[in-house]
Each structure stands twice: as C-alpha cells, then as structure tokens.
Amino acid sequence: MSTVYITREAHFNAAHRLHNHSKSDDWNRSVFGACNSENWHGHNYVLQVTISGTPDPDTGYILDLGVLKQLIHDHVLQHVDHKNLNLDVPFLQGILPSTENLVVAIWNQLVDVLPSGQLHCVRLYETPRNSAEYFGPKE
Q: Is residue 37 within 8 Å of residue 17, measured between CB atoms?
C-alpha cells in the first residue's frame, strides 16, 4: 500500500518578543521592528502536525487522530497556550521564539512520542499570511 498523510490542526495563543541579547537594542529594533516590543506581543497560532505511514489493516488508521490530538496537547499545547514563549516554556529556554525556531522545537517535542506512523511535517501559522514548516533534520 502507498504512504498516506494525515494532519491534525490545533490552535494556541501566546506572547513573545524577538530580541537577540548578543546584539544592541538599536540592532534589535531595526531587525525585529514591532516584534521587538519590550512589552511583548501576541499571536493566535495555528499548528498543523502531519503524520505519514501505511494504514493498519485492522483499523484503517496510521494513527488514531484522537491519540494524535492528545499527544499534541500533552507535549506542546499545555506548555505554550496562553504563555510567554520567552519566559514560560521549558523546551524553548535559550531559543529565540521565531516561527522558524518554534516549528523545530515543536517537532522535537513530538518526534519520539508517536506510537505509530512517522512525523512528516510541522507547520505553524503565526498569522494567516505568515507560516513556517519543518520536515525534520536532513540525514
């Protein structure tokens, strides 16, 4: 049988500040603009997690989407929803919380906890017009 892809979508709200502490305040304001606000700013994020695999002949599932929903909640959402990504999230400590860095960090939270299927892609929309996606490390 061919490979099939399934996707679960989730939402969370979080605040962050883009600020590189090794650079000057002027550099940070110039590079990050409004995203460098000392008072933080927030987003209504949309997270899409795609799993690939061959459906089980008994269930027709690669992975029960209810199980995937719970894994996303337990390993990602409960840590980031209504949080300050710079201050409150242990798996983001020391990471500049750009959308690009967030998709890699979320991938790392999920890649080893799937009971079946393979993590194919993590896509994160920061706004309806801005998103990043990650397909895992290059081998």
A: yes
- The single residue of 16, 35, 43, 79 carrying the catalytic annotation is 35
Tens of pLDDT along the chain (139 residues) come to: 689 999 999 999 999 999 999 999 999 999 999 999 999 999 999 999 999 999 999 999 999 999 999 999 999 999 999 999 999 999 999 999 999 999 999 999 999 999 999 999 999 999 999 999 999 998 6
**Catalytic-residue membership of 38:** no
Q: Is 126 a catalytic residue?
A: yes
Q: Tell me the whole-structure pTM to 2 decimals.
A: 0.95
Burial class (CB in 10 A: 0-12, 13-18, 19+), 102: buried
Cross-strand bridge partners of residue 58: none
Which residue, chain included where needed, has tokens 């409004």? Answer: 34
Active site residue 35: yes
